[in-house]
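The records we work with from here on pair a chain with its fold. Here is one such record, which you should read through line by line:
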Amino acid sequence: MAKDDLVQIDGKVIDALAGGLYKIELDNKVIINAKLCGKMRRFNIRVVVGDRVSVGVSPYDPSHGLIQFRHK
């Protein structure tokens, strides 16, 4: 599945887990696990608890996501 096929949802980082996973609370109060996308890892963009992020969620498995953008 390409990144263009993912549904973009905004949320807030509520916990940083081991292995590069983050727990995200979406705007609709659903909590999912997400990991950083490749470009965020490549350019060392840091995500900390409390940051607002855009998460790409697959329509086939909405319990996992991919953090694609960190808002200011």
The CA atoms of residues 12 and 52 lie 5 Å apart. The chain has one domain: 3-70.
